[in-house]
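Morning F.,

Quick status update on the modeling queue. The single chain you submitted on Monday has been processed. Sequence for confirmation:
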Amino acid sequence: MTEKNKNKETKRDDAPRRGPGAMAMNRPAAKPKDFKGTTKRLLEYIGNYRFQLIIISIFTILVTGAAVIAPNFLRIIINDLQRIINGSISQDEGIANIVTAFIILISFYIVRFVLEIILQLLGNKVSISIGKKMRNDLRDKLEKLPIKYFDEKSTGDVLSVFSNDVDIVTNSIQQSLINVISSVFQVIGILVMMFIISWELTIIALFALPLYIVTTMIIAKKSQAKFKAQQKELGNLNGHIEEIFTANKIVKLFNKQEESYQEFSVINYKLADKMRGAQFLSGLIRPLMTFISNFAYVAVVIVGGILAGVANPLLIGDITVFVNYQRNFSQPILNIANITNQLQSTIAGAERVFQVLDETEELNKATNGEICLKEVKGHVLFENIDFSYSEDTELINDLNLEVKPGRQIAIVGHTGAGKTTLVNLLMRFYEIDKGGIYIDGIKTTECSRVSLRKKFGMVLQDTWLFSGSIRENIAYGKAEATDEEIINACKQAHVHHYIETLPEGYDTILKEDADNISQGQKQLLTIARAILFDPKILILDEATSSVDTRTESYIQNAMLKMMEGKTSFVIAHRLSTIKNANIILVMDHGQIVEQGNHQQLLEKNGVYADLYNSQFLNKPI
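Structure tokens below.
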């Protein structure tokens, strides 16, 4: 484990150890900390789409209006049929009225259908555009964040913001906007139409309104706590499955399948128990709404029947359509209650997105004016360096080191000694607390990070190859490289022959994480990439850890050739790889405790000798 990762683990001892995605999946649908502030910011964020959102609002109102008004023409048709039957109007007049009302009714349905299609297309376009902008902004932000941010955040948390939170926000912007406007205008429109038909029946129907509201609020409050508990158990289950899937071979190796299954069964039972409670409560809302609605329905029918026999009787069409309005009256109220809960999740998701966008960026500019490193010779100086990952844990204190151009410097030490930290500071992955680092007499903070890092080449223990051809991966740091240069680099890395054996050769497509080639071949390709890049200063962090002993000897020869005339920092645990280094630095607790060449350090019989003997003479440290 590198020092950076070790420190990262130390700082996150309280974090779950179930894999990168566990933290994100274990997170319940929490309420936003600042609902009002985040809502205001979200509205400002989507301000560029205000025109489209206004159009969506207008179309939603038109669709809702058509849906509310259309049944009134059905009322006219039924009433005129009744009048024809009882002789209140002539058959010709009645049929003419019915035909007119029928044409208008069909026209309303057609218009509503067309408007709904347009509304759906507009809503999808806007939500997709907002999601695209949000992901672009997040991607751009991640490029500007310091390495420290990624040390402190789990991969699952970052991915969750990109996928879950952005999807929640963008989908809700479309759905909630349409549903809120539609539900509000439905309530208003239905009330108006009910009053037009019969104000007496409307007063009776409205007695059910407080019951709708109170019932929804009580159940929503209780079910929200249940759903949080359900999400927590779901996170535990997902984390367990991820953990077992990742370590499937280890579980089988130690014959722990039964114990693993028992643990899964316990978690699964808890999840099922929580789901029963949550689903039962949420499922109560609609039956209770229907129950209340039925009482109001009975009251409306009884009073309607009484009113049908008075001086100004209600006709069959009046009562039929009124009951239809009355039955539909609870639906928009239920929608508004659901939207309220949905908005909590939406604003919470937006809040997490904005938290990432608000993180302190890694300033790329130089501290005191730009000084570009052009022709780098490779003289490196660490002067009075103090550094710690956290204020309460000191790592490097008053470190001094001078490396002359073209020298090969090997850095060894126990895990956590500060080896990788040293080169991370050199490349400004982290900023030092005190002192200065100089390259050819120029302080690294006087160069932008971009210009500084162009002078370095790195080959890490953890290989990174992207989904693409082998040629593209090797030329990643030098896009203009010719085929001849790529092949030459691969020959030096002793990977050319292997590539030639592949059916597609250099055009072979690597899968995600390059899973279709071995770990050793991955390492050789990254070495070839570094050789092709031809950096001025080279950093090798356990670069041959994934290759066999024979290949390692080939690589060492290639590396020695590549390091000719370059200043090289080699971090090594396998001391056999750094015997020929000009200077070997032995680090312990952030300090250089010994330095010299291999033979000199063995003669000192100190820390290096103990490390060497422990590897080659089986001597305990």
